[in-house]
Amino acid sequence: MHALRYVSASGLVVEMDGPSTWAGTALDMRANKWDYELGARRLKRALRKAWTPEVEVYFGNSKDADVAAAIFDADVGAGIPGMFYANGCHQPGYCLGLVPLNLTRRGLKAKLQIALLDGVWRIPETYHLFPQSGDINGTKVYPLRYPYT
Known about the structure:
mainly beta; two-stranded antiparallel ribbon; 9 strands
């Protein structure tokens, strides 16, 4: 997953594949799994539940990590999910934890615990509706002559 970013409920953006932050492929976020219950020779129930993957992120400096943590905390505190974007797909969620793994002069490596709420990545769809017949005024043009209003 490249070009991963988080847009908070207030509109602030945390770039996770920006110039100073790198999340790599974020493999745990790519998972596709169902919660299910089996019955006698059938699938009784299947649904996609919220789940919590963990992603390692490298921040170019600890200040970027502090700003990201403040943005994540504001959304969790308000109870309003932000939106994760990756490769044109989106999914609502929270970042529930930022655990530092390694701090050096060059930057901070941290593990993010993310809660993805939909359980599936969605691609926005655009629909274009065109009239099948008619003129520029919106009057319907019928192939046969009969009265209509």
